[in-house]
């Protein structure tokens, strides 16, 4: 008889110092009322970005997660491959964080946790937030992709016709959660509501009118 227990529904969430702290905050909000445990690690620079972009402090962010860790706590549960998780999302992911993960020389819990996800062959999604990209950025992304990471820059989907920045953020995060087979109903999927989408004739007419 197979008595193996199912993998716990735990997701590691990393927030680094890149612009776009709202992605990490909103991700925690979306997952808060689900059975999924969120295990949060935030870099020091992320706290600065968080305060500047959202007005939130660390004390306000902590209650949004199931478990929080200090970025200096290299002995935390998420630093070990024996601690089973669904994977990890870094939202947003700075170039420095991306580069440290790619090198394997991890100096913080955030990058160590990501390295663990890679070595255990779990799903690692990096919402890299930088533009334009130079050659080394692209090479680092390629190296990470070859290691098994998924590079998912927060690119808006205009076909969904977002009416607000909040809708744009939710759609982007919904597509990221798709990568871990997590469905929260925040994605307006292409052609699932065809009545809301223009026909080819309507598109051609609009082009002619312009």
From TrEMBL:
Residues 10-179 form the Flavoprotein domain. It catalyses: dimethylallyl phosphate + FMNH2 = prenylated FMNH2 + phosphate. FMN binds at residues 17-19, 43, 94-97, 129. It is an enzyme of class 2 (transferase). Keywords: Flavoprotein, FMN, Prenyltransferase, Transferase. It holds the Pfam family Flavoprotein. InterPro entries: Flavin_trans-like, Flavoprotein, UbiX-like. Dimethylallyl phosphate binds at residues 159, 175. GO terms for molecular function: carboxy-lyase activity; flavin prenyltransferase activity. Coiled coil: none annotated. Its EC number is 2.5.1.129. NCBIfam families: PRK06029.1, ubiX_pad. Belongs to the UbiX/PAD1 family. Flavin prenyltransferase that catalyzes the synthesis of the prenylated FMN cofactor (prenyl-FMN) for 4-hydroxy-3-polyprenylbenzoic acid decarboxylase UbiD. The prenyltransferase is metal-independent and links a dimethylallyl moiety from dimethylallyl monophosphate (DMAP) to the flavin N5 and C6 atoms of FMN. This is Flavin prenyltransferase UbiX.
